[in-house]
Amino acid sequence: MKATISLAIAAFLATPAHAQVEDAGRWIIYGTTSTHERDSSVPGGAIRAALPPAKRAEPWSSGAVLKLPHAIAAGEPVSATFWARAALPMRTTAAIQGPEPAYVQLATTDLALTPKWQRFTVTGTSPSALAAGSQSLVVTLGQVNTQVMLGPVAWAPAPVAAKAFAAFHPAAVPIDLTIPSKQATLAGTLHLPTGHGPFPVAIVIQGHGPNGRGGFDPVIARLNRDGIAALEYDKRGIGQSTGTYVEDIGLLTTDAQAAVAAMRARPDIDGRHVALIGHSQGGVVAPAVAAADPSIGAVVTLGGSVGDGFTGLAEALRRQMIAAKRPAAAIDPAVDAALTLLRARAAGRDEAAVAPLRLTLVERLQGLGFTRPEAESGLKMIDVPEAWAADRVCSASDLAATKAPVLAIYGGKDPLVIAAPEAAAARTALAANRKATVVVFDDLSHWFQDGAVTGDEKEVPGLGPNLGSPRVVALVGDFVASALKSVD
């Protein structure tokens, strides 16, 4: 009996007096379609609505996941209290569980969902010390036949959670929207500050690749705390956006311009105060939009290359080869071969004329020390339609034509956009802009995370969120807030 009482007291003492509440926007939905919506019936006003999966399967084949943000000591009780409802009465389960492949459950509970919002609590005890992020709250959705809505989560038992929910006032609420563009409809999420608008807005523009929303979370959170809305969107043909995915700088610019127009049409957004924040390729798109639109209030480029046409591309290739310490005597011949091939492609030369140019480039890449298979792989990366159209990229000229305040940031360990020469090119392009700043963080890579050693992309998963360096987040946040406040 004494042992039982002692354990109960220990568990009580281990229960936090306050709880960390996570907004509904933090739920990760897999296996089905979901949206961010607003609902004043739940604390914070944000919900995540998940449609039933297209085909019912195993319960775990679709679900909602939220990672436990803190570590757990051995024997420590762990609880999650969350809001949920369904369009029609239904039953499912919730659990706190570990990662694949075992998915060991610390706790589980049945959920009887109704159209009325309810609070549910899952409680268990940790069998051993567990690291932050190693456990997740999971709601299974694989066999549901109606829409399920999820609200905020408090990592605490019900009594503590009730107080935490009552005091919960998030900086912003995410809402999903669509943006009409040329032969496509873009799906986006607007992180709208709480309080009274209209609000200034920053539009974040993704880098190269089939990227959807995400990757700017720390920057968006900082902007929201300053009362600045933030829009992110899936590239055309990616995620929930329609159209055909293509890495065409003209179409990417058109899509970003469509996002600007969509924000200016909203009554809750102050269309006179619009900033653009672009990462990598987005750092090329953002100046292109601003150069054509002098009413843009601020531009931030993060690892955006600077150069015009094929000449700019050739210089970027040369910088990468120098940084990779390839044989100096072989660099210019390889760059020249790449340039000759791309110009032939741009001129519409047929395959018979292009074939020997491709072979020459492979041989020149071998001269840089690549094996034949590596050289052929390099050819496949260079000889692509987006590179054929590089003569339409004018990032240096666009930066020079941008009238808004510009912040250009580079990482000294960036293996893709080499900091020293790119920063020098940016300073040259921005020489006439008194409101422009170029910054190099010597110890950061292309993904702007603290802790980079080599700067290689392989390090990214172990270094926290993309664009997550607190120094970069603070610099971008301070710059955007100051620039938008100065807009007439």
TrEMBL record:
ATP-binding listed as a keyword: no
SUPFAM superfamilies in the cross-refs: alpha/beta-Hydrolases
InterPro entries: AB_hydrolase_Est10, AB_hydrolase_fold, Hydrolase_4, Pept_S9_AS
Top-level division of the source organism's lineage: Bacteria
UniProt keywords, alphabetically: Hydrolase, Signal
Pfam families membership: Hydrolase_4
Record GO terms (molecular function): carboxylic ester hydrolase activity; serine-type endopeptidase activity
Gene Ontology annotations of biological process type: proteolysis
Domain Serine aminopeptidase S33, chain residue ranges per copy: 202-306
Signal peptide: 1-19
Keyword Cytoplasm in annotation: no
PANTHER family found in the cross-reference section: ESTERASE ESTD (PTHR43265)
Name of the protein: Serine aminopeptidase S33 domain-containing protein
